[in-house]
Amino acid sequence: MQLPSEVERLGAGRVLILSTPEKSLNLQRVTEILGDRVAGVYDKAVMHVPLAIAEEARHLAQELGADCCVTVGGGSTTGLGKAIALTSDLPILAVPTTYAGSEMTPIYGLTDAGMKKTGRDARVLPKTVIYDPALTLTLPPALSAASGMNAIAHCAEALYAHDGNPIISMMAEEGIRALASALPTVVEDPANMEARSEALYGAWLAGITLGSAGVALHHKLCHVLGGTFNLPHAETHSIVLPHAMRYNRDAAPLAMARIARALGTEDAPTGLYDLEVKLGLTLALKDIGMTEEGLERAARIATDAPYPNPRAVEYDDTLALLRDAYEGQRPPK
Ligand code: NAD
User: Fold this and answer.
1) Which of 62, 155, 167, 173 is deepest in the core (most CB within 10 A)?
2) Residue 294 sits in a domain of what CATH number?
3) pLDDT single digits (tens) 314-326
4) What residues pair up with 121 in beta bridges, in sequence order?
5) C-alpha 250 to ligand 1 mean position (Å)
6) Would you say residue 269 lies in a domain?
7) Which pTM value belongs to this model?
8) How far, rounded to the nearest angstrom, does the alpha carbon of residue 217 sit from its chain's CA centroid?
């Protein structure tokens, strides 16, 4: 395990380990490997980084005199490390265990009073990332599939980002190809190391594309649905993605052609939806806790301060998109 030597390369010796409470992540093992370099463990990371949790972890880091955060977990854990780094400059060594991709981005998010705010800051970009597919073997198949679709969403929006570029587009297309080819095997045979490795490779590419190009309507909707309606992150991305692609299809034909090519289909939105059916994913927002009454509010928040998007972001059209995602029907061709 390269963890101790990588901590030393950062010049650190008082590590604060961050994680979620799940036992399956085997924190005990990480703690043993790091030995007396461990100053403390904080395992209360939750989705969307509530400000109160961020404050508690920041105080702990200060109290312990920590000089580095080692994050072992998915985007929630990496996000907590970022919240600490944002106010303290502590370096992050990230050990991702999902396909969310946060470890490759300078993007942070904090949620306060039901509103999620995101920003970019070079201080929160992890200094070191260790990818170890063995740590993803315990990620349940359904969550693996949804998390993989979250990564595909990063790639898809990078392909039509207002500030994209040819290299990022190449990485994005390759990321979609790798994830779409690995995920069916990951779901069928979660202990298949080759498929896990390929999926993590796709997630790495996806993280880079997310960190390098702006996001658009799809990510905006998911931030609103997660931050304000507390819907689960990866599943929300997965459900909204085909409908967001349908919304943008005619406004971004080149991006859609590349997404379709990476999926091996003719049409990007239906190709994504069909992949989700194959992976056995939940397809409707109504099945993950969204209320019908909430749709109008979500559309309002998302359209009041939209991200740049290939097609104009209008309230009525966005509400129609959300209604389709709520019902979970296959988008029309
Ligand atoms: P997560 O980190 O919340 O993890 C989901 C669940 O899976 C948790 O219960 C976790 O303990 C468990 N888990 C994680 N890895 C596991 C493993 N290998 N085995 C067993 N269980 C495991 O989920 P996520 O989708 O990775 O992250 C979501 C959060 O990340 C959201 O808040 C989202 O906004 C943020 N995010 C941020 C960025 C960014 O660039 N800033 C990018 C992507 C996601």
Assistant:
1) 155
2) 1.20.1090.10
3) 999 999 999 999 9
4) none
5) 32
6) yes
7) 0.97
8) 15
